[in-house]
Amino acid sequence: MELILLFFIFILAGFLGFELIAKVPSQLHTPLMSGSNAISGITIVGAIIAAGTDDKSWVTTVLGTSAVILAMVNVVGGYLVTDRMLGMFRKKGESTGATKGGPTP
Amino acid sequence: MSREIAINLAYIVAAILFIFGLKMLGRQASARRGNLISAIGMLLALVATLLDHHVVNYTWITVGLVVGTAIGVFCARVVKMTSMPEMVALLNGFGGLASLLVGWAEYGKIRAYGWERYLAEFAGNPVFTSVVIALTVLIGGITFTGSMYAFAKLAEWLSGKPRLFRGQQLVNFALCGLGLAGSLVFALSGDPALAQLAFFVVLAVSLILGWTLVMPIGGGDMPVVISLLNSLSGLAACAAGFVIANNVLVVAGCLVGTSGVILTVIMCKAMNRSLVSVLSSGFGSGVVAASAASGDVVQGELKPLSPEDAFAVLEAARQVVVIPGYGMAVSQAQHVVRELAERLEENGAEVRFAIHPVAGRMPGHMNVLLAEANVPYEQLVEMDAINPMMPTMDVAIVIGANDVVNPAAARDKSSPIYGMPIIRAHEARTVICLKRGKGAGFSGIENQLFLMPNSRMLYGDAKASLQAVIAEFKSLNAA
After folding, report:
1. Of the N and C termini of chain A, which has fewer Cβ atoms inside 10 Å?
2. Distance in Å, alpha carbon of A51 to nearest chain B alpha carbon
3. d(C-alpha A87, C-alpha A37), whole Å
């Protein structure tokens, strides 16, 4: 039963994903992609459960810990990079949020 | 039990935050807040998971979280805006590998616990759980090596040219078949030794397949590949969610998966190619022969232009459109471009930036670079909006763009890019093309735009050329 429910959620989330992204202006494609890329780091949840297990196998621990590191890089890097990009988009006249870390002209 | 409920409620809230975050990312005004909201959702999901009763040992989790955060912060700080496509590919690859490792670790747990105890903790049955573990590994592995290969191409560690070998598609089909067969054996064989062998076959196949799938895809098609890999990384997370029966993983993974598919379709449409043709053909490899055989539709010669003459043309212009491409990213010319635009505006001209959906190496690549250089986004015009205005433009400045302005796409049926929507730069009164040298562009196709009577070539590094033009404007103001 629980699996059926998961499938149900899966299908609905799929349709939702289509609806959410269907009409996004092309200038936002890059932040959108890196933002959704950060969300795909949700695998951190699986990684934590894998790494926190009590089985005494070092293989699982190594795999789980590596997964936590990688997923966390994905999450943190993804959100920060997206924020940096979005911070640069501005309307005419706005000049706040200087291009931190970017190359100087 | 109440803890379970609390965790699941937190997951629901996290899922809602992801959904709102994605929605808000789709609008300029709310995009930054949207990203923040989605990040809060992630934090919530992470904290809730730490309270999960499966988690008993926090030592290694803490190590992983700290190390991962440090690396993530470091990467995000140092990466240059021009390197954003590589960065996204790299992060994406990490996500894929993480999912793969989760699948692997869960398989390890099953071997350690035995099915009975494992299934008592997570829902499922042996066949289903095995299938989704195999899928997690398969998709995660393809995402990982595919993203790494794309990363190497984008960072120019490897040539961006497509790499083809005889029977490549056959090999890919065979690998796909082997991966699926391995998954089936893994799921259905009752023999643990055989299942283990099958698992490692699936693992190996997935890693090789990611490599061989991305290999034949040229750098010009990278926007498609990146969004597709992004989609796959979501699906890998989603599959991992089915393994441990975790709803937030399924929801978030699926959202990313489908939104990635949408982006991929948009990119394909922008190139007028089907996904299959992007994935299978080595764009630009068989091309040189074809165009040579057909003979160019436009006959003409390349007419070079000096920066002084370019200044003279621009000084008289009232309507100017700038069409940037990957070349602008390569020469880091975005700041100089903005300065030139300002000079032109001071001179009374109206300046627009025409952005082709697949200009650059990543969807929206040009927008990010111009934003970095402080170009207000109202000045950026999408292809469909600028094309009707093209005949009224005095000057079109093409900066390192090639295929996206090639009129052959509209006229020459033998051209490999025939049918791809282009920015009709050739309709402007004068076209100034900034180009490094005389060779063909990335896809190896001769650009007919350069040969047209109203085209002038400004050779040299785009940044240096533009600086020379700006210097002319400065001396005008000084005089």
Report:
1. N
2. 6
3. 18
- Last residue of some domain: B30, B45, B78? B78
Positions of B annotated as catalytic residues are 403
ipTM of the complex: 0.87
**Domain that includes residue B389, residue range:** 295-478
Domain presence at residue B290: no
Question: What value does the mean pLDDT of chain B take?
Answer: 85
Q: Where are the domains of chain A?
A: 30-88
* Residues B85 and B136 reside in one and the same domain: yes
Task: List the CATH number of the domain containing B399.
Answer: 3.40.50.1220
Rounded to an integer, what distance in angstroms lies between the CA atom of residue B436 and that of residue B34?
39
Instruction: Extract the tokens encoding B226.
Output: 């990146």
- Whether residue B299 is found in the same domain as residue B257: no
Query: What strand order describes the sheet that includes B380-382?
Result: B380-382, B350-355, B319-324, B395-399, B430-435, B455-459
Whether pLDDT at B235 is above 90: yes
Judge whether B242 lies within some domain.
yes
Tell me the pLDDT band of B284, cut-offs 50, 70 and 90: very low
d(CA B243, CA B228): 23
Q: Of B254, B280, B306, which residue constitutes the final position of a domain?
A: B280
Could you tell me which residues are beta bridge partners of residue B431?
Answer: B396, B455
Cβ-Cβ contacts under 8 Å, A9 against chain B: 247, 250-251, 254
Is residue B237 included in any domain, yes or no?
A: yes
Contacts with A, B 209-248, CB within 8 Å:
226-227, 230, 233-234, 236-238, 240-248
pLDDT score recorded for residue A42: 94
Residues B246 and B114 in one domain: yes
How large is the average pLDDT for residues B290-312? 65
Whether the CB-CB separation of B72 and A72 falls below 8 Å is answered with yes
- What DSSP element (H or E) covers B398? strand B395-399
Measured between CB atoms, which of A22, A59, A105 is closest to B335? A105
